[in-house]
Amino acid sequence: MTLEAETRETRKPPFYMRGNYAPVGDEATLTDLKTEGRVPDGLEGVYLRNGPNPPAGKTPGHWFMGDGMLHGLKLGGGKAHWYRNRWIQTKSLAGAKSMREDYSRDYSVGVSNTHVVPHGGNIYALVESSLPMRVSPELETLGNEDFGGKLDFAFTAHPKVCPVTGEMHAFGYGFAPPYLVYHRIGADGTYLQREEIAVTGPTMVHDFAMTRDHVIFMDLPVVFDLEIALKGGMPYAFSDSYPARLGILKRGAPASATRWVSVQPCYVFHVANAHEAADGTITIDVSRYDELWRRGAKRNFDASRLWRWTVRPGAPSADETPLDDLTLEFPRVDERLNGLPHRYAYAPVGVPFDHATEENFSALARYDMKTGARSIRRFGEAMMSEFVHVPKHAGAAEEDGWLLGFVFDAARGSSDFHILDAATLENAARIELPRRVPQGFHGSWCPDV
Ligand SMILES: [Fe+2]
Fold first, then answer.
1. How far apart are CA 36 and CA 341, in angstroms?
2. Which residues pair with 143 in a beta bridge?
3. What is the CA(268)–ligand 1 centre distance, in A?
4. How far is the CA of 53 from the centre of ligand 1 (A)?
5. Rounded to the nearest whole angstrom, what is the distance from the C-alpha of residue 160 to the centroid of ligand 1?
6. Buried-most residue among 33, 37, 226, 356 (CB within 10 A)?
7. For residue 36, how far is its CA from the centre of ligand 1 (angstroms)?
8. DSSP labels for 144-175?
């Protein structure tokens, strides 16, 4: 049964308004947090996580369309100082529309609900339809970022910060030409380059990949659908005719230099990481759906799995290899290795994954890409979100890190913040919150500077 049919039949609200997907109704600042174990020395900063949280009385047309709320945990001196949650004070939350009367887009209006990323001394709350929104480490909203007036287009929620140059590579997409635009931002926050990438049509482009020398765009067959758009839903659906391709562009090169290679039809929201060998072979590890939203976005999500695309020099298509059979999403790596070879990836997995109830992602998997080994940390009757890797200290080895994330404890009806050792997936600390943190999207560790 489709979600739409189920909702009609049972009169239940959609899944994203139920259980731990449901929004919370208020903002809180909590101190004196109950902590099991000890917050490790060296974790000095704030963990921020973003997600949709429509205010009371508002049911968006899709989980992805709810107004953004940040959740933050301030850590330091061996303890958790506070937990806060704050709506991001966007124009959208205040009731503004992103479409002007002449049907042009106002990119300063958006829900800012997907990711939160530090760069160049700023912290940006991001959603792929609009400009970045600057926020403070205390979760206050500071205002839109247009990089000195040079950005007037959508900006992805998944920019890639190069650990070697400090540059932030990004893109934006839209349903009217230009459909895809590459943005390059300097380490100091200066907008350096804008390139319009020629694609076949308007597709949903959630993430992209970066290597030491290239950026890789995913032009995949989830295509803008005007009919759905006019009904107010998430206006994209799977197409059997749209060609699935990867566009590979040397970092900083003009758009005309983009090399296109074909892949099997699929959809990918998230790239774990990508890197390239001395001979130019590019490896991209992704969370891949065989297809997505064939009958539109109101259908539940299908299963996505860990796959590898390998693009050899001169080849017209990528080699494609499934790496695991578990359902997973939100894969992350040690971000000091963005665009460089990584050994480990970490992702929430469903064991088992229940498509009917969406009661999914109750465990965290650690993948050793070198040996193929997989270890699993189960959280019992729980629902979990993405975990973020933080190195234990400057210069620490890749496996010498912490993993930070929220897990909803269904038995208690509230959430825990876990700090796991990245090597063993065992707890260093568990901070017990007296309230729920709804299922959300992405977060970052923002160290004190
Ligand atoms: Fe995402």
1. 35
2. 134
3. 10
4. 16
5. 12
6. 33
7. 30
8. E--TTTT--S---S--EE-TTT--EEEEEE-S
**CB neighbours of 95 closer than 8 A, spacing ≥ 6?**
none
> Could you please report the per-residue DSSP string of 57-90?
T---SSGGGSPEEEEEEEEETTEEEEEEEEE---
Residue 126 CA to ligand 1 center (angstroms) comes to 10
Q: Please give the distance, rounded to the nearest whole angstrom, from the Cα atom of residue 441 to the centre of ligand 1.
A: 6
Burial (CB count <10 Å: 0-12, 13-18, 19+), residue 5:
exposed
DSSP single-letter state for residue 317: B
Question: Tell me, what's the pLDDT at 301?
Answer: 72
**Dist. CA 261 → ligand 1 center (Å):** 23
For the chain, the 3-state helix, strand and coil shares in percent, each to the nearest 5, are 5, 40, 55
CA of 397 to the centre of ligand 1 (A): 26
Which is nearest to 447 in space by CA: 381, 393, 386?
393
- Rounded to the nearest angstrom, the distance between the alpha carbon of 330 and the centre of ligand 1 is 7
Instruction: Determine the distance separating the centroid of ligand 1 and the alpha carbon of 442, expressed in angstroms.
Output: 6
Task: Please give the distance, rounded to the nearest whole angstrom, from the Cα atom of residue 117 to the centre of ligand 1.
Answer: 12
Alpha carbons 145 and 134: distance in angstroms, whole number? 6
Q: 97: CA distance to ligand 1 center in Å? A: 23
Compute, in angstroms, the gap from residue 127 CA to the centroid of ligand 1. 9
Q: Enter the tokens of residue 116.
A: 């939160």
Task: Tell me how far the alpha carbon of residue 100 lies from the centroid of ligand 1, in angstroms.
Answer: 27
For residues 288 and 387, give the distance between their C-alpha atoms in angstroms, rounded to a whole number.
19
Rounded to the nearest whole angstrom, what is the distance from the C-alpha of residue 64 to the centroid of ligand 1?
10
pLDDT over threshold 50, residue 1: no
Mean pLDDT in residue range 239-266: 97
8 A C-beta contact, residue 169 and residue 229: no
What are the tens digits of pLDDT across the range 211-239? 999 999 999 999 999 888 888 778 999 99
pLDDT tens-digit map of 117-142? 999 999 999 999 999 999 999 999 99
* E strands in 9-152: 28-30, 34-37, 45-52, 68-76, 79-87, 115-119, 122-126, 133-135, 141-144
- C-alpha of residue 111 to centroid of ligand 1, in Å: 14
Average pLDDT over residues 102-114: 94
Structure tokens given for 194? 């804008």
Which residues sit opposite 216 in a β-bridge?
Answer: 209, 248
CA nearest to 61, candidates 296, 320, 378:
296
CA neighbours within 13 Å on the CB side: how many for 259?
A: 17
User: What's the CA dihedral at 410, 362, 23, 100 to 10 degrees?
Assistant: -170
Single out the residue of 124, 123, 127 nearest to residue 109, CA to CA.
Answer: 127
